[in-house]
Design brief:
The protein has about 700 residues and is an alpha/beta fold. The chain has three domains: about 5-205 and about 335-360, Rossmann fold (3-Layer(aba) Sandwich), CATH 3.40.50.300; about 210-330, Udp-n-acetylmuramoylalanyl-d-glutamate--2,6- Diaminopimelate Ligase, Chain: A, domain 1, CATH 3.40.1390; about 515-665, Isocitrate/Isopropylmalate dehydrogenase-like (Rossmann fold). Helix content is about 45%, strand content about 20%. It has 28 helices and 23 strands. Strands 3-2-4-1-5-6-7 form a seven-stranded parallel β-sheet, with helices on both faces. A six-stranded mixed β-sheet has the order 20-19-21-18-17-22, sandwiched between helices. The chain has a five-stranded mixed β-sheet with strand order 8-12-11-10-9, sandwiched between helices. Strand 6 (about 170-175), helix 7 (about 180-190) and strand 7 (about 195-200) form a beta-alpha-beta unit. Helix 19 (about 450-460) packs across helix 20 (about 465-475) and helix 23 crosses helix 24. It is elongated. The structure holds acetyl coenzyme *A. Acetyl coenzyme *A binds next to helix 22.
Amino acid sequence: MTNAIYLTTTEPYSGKSVIALGLMNLLAGKTEKIAYFKPIISQEGEEKDGHLKMIGGHFHLDTPYEDMFAFTRSEAAKYINSGKESYLIDTIIDKFKRLQGNHDFVVVEGTDFMGGSSNIEFDGNISIAKNLGIPAVIIVKGEGKSTSEIVDIAVSTTKGFTDEGVQVLTVVANKIELDKDEEIRTHLTAALPTGLIVTSIPSSRDLGSPTMKEILESVGGKVLFGERMLSNQVDNSIVGAMQLHNCLTRLQKNTLIVTPGDRGDIIIGALQANISKNYPKIAGILLTGGLQPEQTIIKLIEGLETVVPILSVKSGTFKTVSRVANTQSRITIENKEKISLAIGMFDQFVDVKALEKKIISFRATGITPRMFQYQIVKRAKEQKKHIVLAEGDDDRILQAADALIKQEVVNLTILGNKESIAASLKRLNLSLELAKINVVNPATSDHYEAYVNKLFELRKSKNISIEMARDLMLDVSYYGTMMVYMGDADGMVSGAAHTTQHTIRPALQFVKTKPGITTVSSVFFMCLPNRVSVFGDCAVNPNPTSEQLADIAISSADTSKMFGIEPKIAMLSYSSGTSGEGQDVDKVRKATEIVRQKRPDLKVEGPIQYDAAVDPTVGKKKMPNSDVAGQASVLIFPDLNTGNNTYKAVQRETGALAIGPMLQGLNKPVNDLSRGCTVDDVFNTVVITAIQAQ
Ligand code: ACO
């Protein structure tokens, strides 16, 4: 079940309001608390976004206006142009998640396509929907398009979204010609993927026609008379340049008469026609050329009881008529009739029952890298932990520490010399205050003796003397690990300047494994373009036995679950199913059996090749009955050679962010950094260490 929907279109004036109003009305009758969110609004400056005002007001939403959107269009452009897209997406996710957390359902409205490049905007909508992890409703504007054009746009837009992993619930062809309803629906149903709901909504004159107020805003004039009736609907316009008797023959219901300001005859004639039972009601009169009616005419009008709006503009008749023709109608909070009409149309044309079924049966697939990073940082902050960073003499460690403290993700102890750390912070131009972190020099620390004695006690059976323990405790990996063992810190991160062996050996020696686990192993969270996969073990066990491989798979599945990724384990090999033979394949086959016996609750497949594990088409072909093939999220490599090289190859060749290695199976969290790590790698590793410690 989803509790949010993304409404998107491909061009302006596609009639999103009808779908937005209809959906909100449907949900208001089913759930208690609904919210409406627009990641990027077109409205700049003081005035509020019309849609948000209308939806918020009509449904009496409790959300403050500033929480209903994340950015204005110009703010968004600024962040994109300065390469800060990730900040943009993180903020959108953050605001959306807050609404989602406090409401039963959130309707999210995509951008208005009022800017320059519609391609960028199209991709932007896909990216936002994907990062929010919610399904889309695609609205295609049918006005002025042939059936095949509508179908082409619907198919390519749907493909654009589904290719990126965003599920599409329904495609709505809106504002279509009345008599083409059946034809368009048939063609769309044939061209779009099966199971997708196809909706077509005919164009409505009552919804599409602007009001006199919208005409006034569009032509930029002033009101001379009839301010009270600015909500009059304008269905058509004529130019009053001919003689009055000719003009009268062209009047229809809700006509706007555009005429030069000095044509008193047309003005009076039109006003008379409006109240005559022999002529239709008119919408209003628009006087051009900046000309005002003569005083006698004004006096006459002033004496009338009801007067339709009479507007005056400076521009000439030709220019004014073209502006009138281009005026688009919007549904506003004041226009209750249009709101009711829109809701009525939604109910009439949308298969509400089928849509409800789709909403209920929706299952989110995968998690995007930004969503993953957002979630892990949020989780770390929820229960702040104390992490020790062993390498205070490394610049990357200090830079990451600065960001971690500023964002209040964790509390930190940094091992090293206070004076040299202070000098490095100054050199790096970091404003991190030493008072906000705990700096410890193992050699001069008050805990040194106690830690030496503890290490001696724990390792004396392994032929360690007290002198050796003294030496070892001067080593930052031993000291940091001992802090964690003694409960003086919740987790340790090291390895920016030390080898993996050096970093993790103390943990293997005395932190030891969790009950029921005999093998310490590691995973990487591989942030691929549209999903996060868990790779294990790429850092610790050079040549695992079947039993160790099973342990690695089980630990990796549990880690995966812990980080919000549904585990589907692929036990990788050069053979899928029963197709290949050999010692290495047998090892993986046996490991898969052990996982099945030990943890029948886990979905596991093996031996299986990488392509069959992750590619739905290959998976279906090679292992048609498997519920893992083609959709594996946890990939277990048969040995360190394969695992380490694969993760590095994927990382380098695809640009994927690899978070880890995260050690699993230890009693307390200790994590290793690669010596080639970046500041972001340090930041992310501390975040996952803090979560492991929770
Ligand atoms: N799980 C649980 N305990 C273990 C494990 C394990 N996987 N490996 C070793 N231990 C324990 C041993 O039982 C032993 O305990 P004891 O002293 O109490 O009896 C202790 O750890 C030390 O064992 P050693 O056999 O001496 O292992 P050593 O410390 O030499 O090496 C290590 C362990 C570091 C994990 C080793 O297997 C190794 O070098 N692995 C490869 C690391 C590597 O180079 N990775 C690739 C680079 S990382 C990257 O690219 C991100």
